[in-house]
Design goal:
Layout (H helix, E strand, L loop, with lengths): L4 H16 L12 E10 L3 H15 L4 E10 L1 H9 L7 E4 L5 H9 L5 E14 L7 E3 H9 L17 E4 L5 H10 L9 E3 L3 H10 L3 E6 L14 H9 L13 E2 L1 E3 L6 E2 L3 H5 L6 E8 L6 H10 L1 H9 L3 E2 L15
Parallel strand pairs: 1-2, 1-3, 5-10, 6-7, 6-8
Antiparallel strand pairs: 3-12, 4-8, 4-9, 4-12, 4-13, 10-11
């Protein structure tokens, strides 16, 4: 029998269509593209950026692409060194200062175009053990403690507690630099000041030792940072809520209220008090990148500096740069 070539062609096309639609076989799976990036971050801000990475990956990933964002939590100087090295894979950093004019010139000489944006205002929390009866401290008293002029709790107020042990995260951290240069006027710290090695270690030291005074970023004492692991879905849901005001601090320690140099009123580091300047201990956080459009680095930079990333920052207790806080209720009704 003579075959009709037209019918053969039609039969072949039909077979291909059935195959593509799963006629007895599975459809070919679309291969997921995996994108990688690394960034360096001042270790003081680890709690904040861990949340940003989790929520960004949740939003970015789909059936066609997957983001793997790897943060390196290092000293601030190490973060800048990584960015300035043209052979390094680090194109984005998070730090407590802007680029200097010399650093910008150096990057441009490498044919790189730096961008930077303030993403948050970090409050410096002063924390003490729950057995410490005091609830507030003035900036003048804080300077005396840092300089070593005051070394005992008894020298400031009636108490059974004696020697003050001031604890920071790391001797080379940006927190130490800020407190020494901006708060203590560049003067060296007294012999009662120690480095515990990390922010988590500061929290642990204060929760164990009644005489300790811990100096730490406010995100480490937020109630949402009490060791409970939130899922990416829960973080995404919270970041989409219209009211993301942080209402309290971890009950394992006590957060001191602080009064400024021109007032006797003391305030705790709630976002509204950071926003209006009543809480006196704060510093800016910047995100800096040399990446270009169309890259995962650029997508992550745009996310953190955009509205969604700013709401994630607000969930950590830190004041975001572009989202105004709304104080609804303060836990315990205190200042």
């Amino acid at each position: 029998m003579k075959l009709n070539l037209t019918n053969v062609a039609l039969l072949g096309a039909a077979a291909l269509a059935l195959s593509a639609c799963g006629g007895g076989q599975k459809a070919k799976k679309v291969e997921q593209k995996v994108e990688h990036m690394q960034f360096a971050c001042d270790a003081t801000f680890e709690n904040i950026m861990d949340q940003e990475v989790d929520v960004f990956e949740y939003y970015y990933n789909n059936s066609r692409r997957q983001a793997l964002v790897v943060p390196y939590y290092v000293s601030q100087s190490a973060a800048f060194d990584s960015l300035m090295n043209p052979d390094n894979a680090i194109k984005t950093i998070v730090a407590a200062r802007r680029l200097t004019s010399a650093e910008k010139t150096r990057l441009r000489n490498q044919k790189r175009k730096p961008r930077e944006q303030r993403v948050a205002v970090d409050a410096v929390a002063l924390i003490v053990n729950n057995r410490n009866p005091q609830d507030a401290i003035s900036m003048a008293e804080l300077r005396q403690v840092l300089s070593g002029d005051v070394r005992s709790w008894k020298d400031m107020w009636p108490t059974k507690l004696d020697s003050i042990r001031v604890v920071f995260d790391d001797a080379g951290s940006s927190m130490v630099q800020f407190m020494r240069d901006s708060i203590n006027g560049g003067k060296p710290f007294g012999p009662n000041v120690y480095a515990e090695g990390s922010a988590r270690a500061v929290f642990d030291a204060v929760s164990r030792h009644p005489n300790a005074l811990g100096i730490i970023g406010v995100s480490w004492v937020s109630t949402d940072m009490d060791g409970t692991t939130l899922s990416k879905e829960e973080m995404r849901r919270r970041s989409e809520e219209s009211d993301t005001t942080n209402l309290g601090f971890n009950p394992e320690i006590k957060v001191l209220a602080v009064s400024g140099d021109d007032t006797n009123m003391a305030y705790k580091p709630y976002q509204a008090y950071i926003f209006d300047g009543r809480y006196p201990l704060f510093r800016s956080i910047y995100m800096i990148t040399t990446t270009v459009g169309g890259t995962l680095n650029n997508a992550f930079y745009s996310f953190v500096t955009g509205m969604q990333g700013q709401k994630v920052i607000q969930l950590t207790g830190v004041l975001p740069a572009t989202v105004q806080p709304r104080m609804v209720q303060i836990a315990g009704g205190d200042d």
